[in-house]
Amino acid sequence: MPNCxxxxxxxxxxxxxxxxxxxxxxxxxxxxxxMVVEAIGERQARFNARVALIAVxxxxxxxxGVAAIGPLYLVAGLIGLAVGIAFLRNTQVGIxxxxxxxxxxxxxxxxxxxGAFKLTLIDVTLTTLLLVWVVRLLMVPDTRLHxxxxxxxxxxxxxxxxxxxxxxxAYTISAENIRxxxxxxxxxxxxxxxVNCLRTKRHVEQVIAGMIIGGSVTAAxxxxxxxxxxxxxxxxxSALRPLGYPSGPDVLRYIAGTDTLRAISTSVDPNILxxxxxxxxxxxxxxxFSPATILPRRVLVATSxxxxxxxxxxxxxxxxxxxxxxxxxxxxxxxxxLWILFIALAIVFYAGLLPENMPFVSHLESGLQARDxxxxxxxxxxxxxxxxxxxxxxxxxxxGQAPSADLYVGVSSIYLLMAEEMGLVGTAVFLLIMGVLLxxxxxxxxxxxxxxxxxxxxxxxxxxxxxxxAGVLDHHFFxxxxxxxxxxxxxxxxxxxxxxxxxxxxxxx
Length: 509
Description:
Blueprint: H1 6-23, H2 26-69, H3 71-89, H4 91-104, H5 121-139, H6 151-168, H7 175-188, H8 190-197, H9 201-226, H10 230-238, E1 253-254, E2 261-262, H11 270-287, H12 297-314, H13 317-334, H14 338-350, H15 359-368, H16 373-391, H17 414-444, H18 451-470, H19 483-504
Antiparallel strand pairs: 1-2
């Protein structure tokens, strides 16, 4: 580059110095300061005017709302608006809120009625989350729709549920059936919320940590109520009546025909509590096998012990078996030597060498041998379910009443219940979803290099396998009356799909 001439360089220096001196002369400085102050004052005045206008409009809207619909509805609407804005800003807040509600207050309703019924906190949370990510998908240009590896099959499953529901209206239909069916569909759609809103490994870890903490807290509540005098426990549980919970002397649950108490915490039913604790327990125990845990190891030891103790007190045999299967899956991948201990315990149990006065052992033996009333009723349900499925094999009888008086819909098994309501076609698609998801996840597990993430994925797979095993003997992961457990189940399916997707990205630069 040619050098500038000395005269040009001198002109530049002299001119620049003169210009700076003129610009920063005292007179101009005062004038500039005055202009800046006036400009700032003008902007502040405009801002204040806008705030005042918004305040006036908000006050007018509140006044009209109070006069038109009453203060209670208005307050509920404002709270709902605030919740919607919080979820829109960060969907992770909404997902963690669902986990907290599902584990601690799964049947809580909003005290303000909406027409003839009241919305539950689960309904509002799931629906708001669904609407938020749909709005984001439509309005944010860079947002992509993630369906997941099995997402198309999940959509097919929902479509078959709609077909069975519409077909079942030929037999019976009611507003309550429609409401419960929509709740179940809303819970299944939670799968798509999970796969579209969880974008980082940290998000997945937070959800798992929330399940562990929520499960341990509700287990602690159940243990405390179990050992509290019956009158005091009844009064404490009846205090939840404003939130739609049952009250009175029948809130405590016992084994049918006996005075043996079962832990229920705030889940109303011991088997529902057992299903929740089983999922949380498997996730918590799996973290004990991780070299880098998502929670402090001492905390995990405490949560695992509390959850297992609470699960034992529910006397929910299906959840016990599901927990055992989940732990066996974890040890098969991480500590195969523990199988020796499990085989020894199985031999001792089968040989009847355990003390007969252990209530948990005797209760499990009674169920496996169908000696008690509950187990005998299950066998009767299975027989009646097979009769119904044989008569309506393809698409079932829908989600209402059975078409004839000598048949009924309802059985303690998600597979038989699904076959009753959706037929063998819907059940086959459900099993296909589970098979494709689990086989793909299990195939990828050994190839995950990050030990921490491998244990997280393993814990999710073990939890889902535990739920599928417990579903042989219980129906809480598909029942119309339990939308929160249905949502927890499909949340697990979504978490596995997300974990698989993130594992694929592990080797990317």
